[in-house]
Write a structure and sequence with these properties.
Distance between the termini: 32 Å
Largest sheet: none
Number of helices: 15
Order of helices and strands: HHHHHHHHHHHHHHH
Structural class: mainly alpha
Radius of gyration: 20 Å
């Protein structure tokens, strides 16, 4: 166990360099992915029009601006496409090469996905931060405790997202085409994560649905970090948010590893 851990740590710099090289090599696909993550700007325009004559469901224009630009930041820092990558490598047989390496493939995939974060940050974050500070800065928290918890919250959100997407990618061990399932998952995520609207709006109209949504993994992947970024929370509420995220992180990683363990037994490389 100790040798495996040390081998993994020594391999991480190389894996990250490979991930950076892949991002640069496939920059067209990367830019397309970046463009598909700008939905919060469209949502901002829509909900700002709704709230033009006054606050709507407790949100005025500065609060909506802060929320959806926060969504843009969180989405770019936590999103990944490992489900598509894993599905393609299973389908083509490329996965067989990863199985020959002395590291668990989930480590290599995680390194590859995280290596793209600096590039996404360079493109999306300066624009979002400038707009956030200039237009919605009054709605951003200045509480040091919340700001201190924001980074762990973003890390947990990334881990949940990665683990769930990895588990979805593992479905390719049983199903030839998983894109329909991933699309359905993305629809649920968009609705219950706070991506399309602040969850408080849904809670005000559908209290039970909104309450349950905050305990789902989807909200921990996006809405929770946004809440830490844009709301003024009590210590208990902050700990509850991060605690729920930590719980879902453990559950989702367990599910991902179980899905991999069960699926890889069925793997037969037929591509090349």
């Amino acid at each position: 166990m100790r040798s495996t851990a040390s081998r993994t740590i020594r391999a991480l710099p190389t894996l990250l360099r490979i991930g950076v090289a892949e991002t640069v090599a496939y920059r067209a696909e990367f830019i397309v992915w970046m463009l598909t993550s700008t939905m919060p700007l469209i949502n901002l325009a829509f909900w700002s029009a709704v709230a033009r004559d006054g606050a709507f469901q407790g949100y005025d224009t500065p609060q909506l601006t802060a929320y959806f630009l926060g969504a843009l930041i969180v989405r770019n820092l936590t999103g990944n496409w490992v489900a598509w990558q894993l599905s393609e490598e299973i389908r083509t047989g490329v996965l067989s090469m990863r199985l020959l390496r002395p590291l668990h493939p989930i480590v290599a995939y995680a390194s590859s996905q995280s290596a793209a974060l600096p590039f996404r940050s360079l493109i999306a974050l300066p624009i979002a931060v400038i707009l956030l500070v200039s237009a919605g800065g009054g709605a951003i928290t200045h509480d040091p405790a919340q700001l201190a918890l924001l980074l762990p919250s973003l890390l947990l959100a990334w881990l949940i997202t990665f683990a769930l997407m990895f588990a979805l990618g593992c479905l390719s061990f049983w199903i030839t085409q998983t894109f329909g399932i991933v699309t359905f998952y993305f629809g649920l995520w968009s609705l219950f994560s706070g991506y399309m609207m602040p969850m408080d709006m849904m809670t005000s109209k559908f209290p039970i649905v909104g309450y349950l949504a905050k305990w789902m993994p989807f909200y921990s992947m996006l809405g929770a970090p946004i809440e830490l970024m844009t709301k003024h929370l009590t210590t208990g509420k902050m700990l509850e948010i991060v605690g729920i995220q930590a719980g879902w992180t453990v559950v989702c990683i367990f599910v991902a590893l179980r899905a991999w363990s069960a699926g890889v037994r069925r793997f037969e490389a037929v591509g090349g």
